Amino acid sequence: MPGPLDFLNPVNTAVSIVKSLVDEWRKMQDRQDSANQAITADLVGLLEELRKTNSTIVKLVSPVRRLKDNPQTFAAEWQDIYADFRDTVDAYDFIEERMHCHKIGQIRFRMGKRKPRFGKDTQWQQFDRALDELSNADLSIIDRHYRPFVADVDAAMRRIDGFVQANDAAQAIAEKKTLLANLDPGYAQTKARLAEMSDLIAQLTNEL
C-alpha cells in the first residue's frame, strides 16, 4: 500500500547516487585546487537542494512526535506546538520547492562537465537519470503529492486542536496517534535520510 511520503522516493534515489559519487570523490588526491573545490561546492549545493523537502517535513512533524500522551499536560504543551505549526504552514508558499527544478538543473549541467575527474560511467549515468527524473517531475511532485500531504497534515492538526479546544484530551491524543501512525515508517526514513544528507554537507563543507 502506498505511503503518504512515497513521493520522496525520487529524492531518496538521487541522494543515494550522490552519496556514491561523494565516496568516489573522497578517493581523489589534491581536492584543494580551485577546480576541485568547485566540485565540492556543487556537491554541497546539490545536497542542500535535495534536503529541503525532507527538512520541512521533519520540521512539521517532529514537535508532534515529542508531545507526550498525557491527558493532564497535553493541552498546555499543544498550544506552542500548534502555534509554531500554524506560523509555518500559513506562510508556506512552495516557492523554494518550485525553484528546485531550476537549481538542480544548473548543478546537473556543471557536474556533467566534470565526469572525467572522478566516478564510474555507470554512476554518472545513474546520476544523470536520477536528476533528470527529479528536475522534470519536481513541479508535478509539488502539486500532486507535496501540497496534498501538507494539507492532510494541516487537517489532522486542526482536528487535534478542535479536540483540545473542546477539552477532550483523550480524543486529541487519539487523533495525534492516528496522524503519526499514518506517517510511519516513511517519516523515520525521511528523518534518517535528512540526517545522512546533513552529515555529508558538514563533511564536504569542511573541505572548502
Structural account:
This protein has 208 residues and is mostly helical. It starts with 8 loop residues before the first helix and ends with a helix. The chain contains seven helices and no strands. The longest helix has 45 residues. Helix 2 packs antiparallel against helix 4. The chain has one domain. Helices cover 80% and strands 0% of the residues.
The largest sheet, given as strand count, sense and whether it forms a barrel, is: none
Q: How many discrete domains?
A: 1
Strand content: under 5%
- Ranges with pLDDT <50 over ≥5 residues? none
The radius of gyration is: 20 Å
Output the helix-strand order: HHHHHHH
Mean pLDDT: 83
SSE inventory with pairings:
Blueprint: H1 9-26, H2 34-66, H3 74-90, H4 95-112, H5 121-165, H6 169-183, H7 186-205
Helix pairs in contact: 1-2, 1-5, 1-7, 2-4, 2-7, 3-5, 4-5, 5-6
